[in-house]
Design brief:
Length: 257
């Protein structure tokens, strides 16, 4: 059924009405969290983050028990071609492939925009949870460590960017393939392939620009320079922007299923 044949305008007291972007974003947020898969994925995120922080506080060196280091660990454990959060990436995939609201909105690009905005909001919520867990862990195990609570604005900004782009990448790949299972399989296969290719000496130079495990992972560990940001931009152009544009083209040109 083509969107051209779908009456997407609703009558409200005789006035044509269509849902605004804020309402669409709220709908997408609810869709990310109101299923069993979404709920348990979010619960798993919190549990794994807590476990990672506890292990660091138990076996880590005293110098590592600072808020910055604990927070970096809380948002870090993830293998991916673009080195983005596995949990956030998967939530983005699930959100993108749920297209049940496409027939209700005349411009599908607005739905994708709402999905992207919802993914950013949810990634910020995940960051707040990580900050809370990291702060609690630091308060318990490392309050007397020198510089325990230091965290520069630049580093916090990089962490926000790191998590948000991870979620957006999930939405991009989900929009491209419109199926959760093959997209998540691709998520696990790509890092292995890139690591293998990056081990080849002839491709090692390219891997420094395209392999997110090298370009994006350090965002949580060190402040980036111009070269570092250039590599980040190159990686995201390939693994986030290109799939997003292709997925948007596919959704806006295809049939609603």
């Amino acid at each position: 059924m083509s969107t051209a044949t779908v009456d997407t305008q609703f009558e409200r007291r005789g006035v044509e009405y269509r849902p605004g972007l804020a309402r669409l974003t709220a709908v997408e947020l609810r869709k990310m969290t109101d299923t069993r898969a979404g709920f348990w994925l979010l619960a798993g995120v919190v549990a794994l983050t807590a476990v990672a922080v506890v292990l660091l506080l138990i076996v880590g060196d005293e110098a590592d028990k600072t808020f910055e280091n604990v927070l970096a660990l809380a948002v870090q454990p993830r293998p991916c071609c673009c080195r983005s959060s596995a949990s956030c990436w998967s939530l983005g995939v699930v959100a993108a492939h749920r297209d049940d609201d496409l027939p209700l909105v005349p411009h599908r690009s607005r739905v994708i925009t709402a999905k992207l905005l919802a993914s950013v909001v949810l990634s910020l919520a995940a960051l707040v949870a990580a900050i809370a867990i990291a702060a609690l862990g630091t308060a318990i195990a490392g309050p007397d460590v020198e510089g325990a609570w230091s965290l520069s604005a630049g580093m916090l900004g990089q962490i926000v960017f790191y998590i948000a782009t991870g979620m957006i990448t999930g939405v991009a790949f989900g929009a491209l393939l419109l199926a959760s299972a093959p997209t998540i399989v691709l998520y696990f296969a790509l890092p292995l392939a890139l690591s293998a290719l990056g081990a080849i000496s002839a491709l090692e130079g390219a891997a420094r620009w395209l392999d997110g495990s090298r370009t994006l992972a350090p965002l949580t560990d060190e402040l980036f320079s111009g070269t570092g940001w250039a590599r980040v931009g190159t990686t995201l152009a390939l693994w986030m922007l290109l799939p997003l544009l292709a997925g948007l083209w596919r959704i806006t040109r295809g049939e609603v299923r």
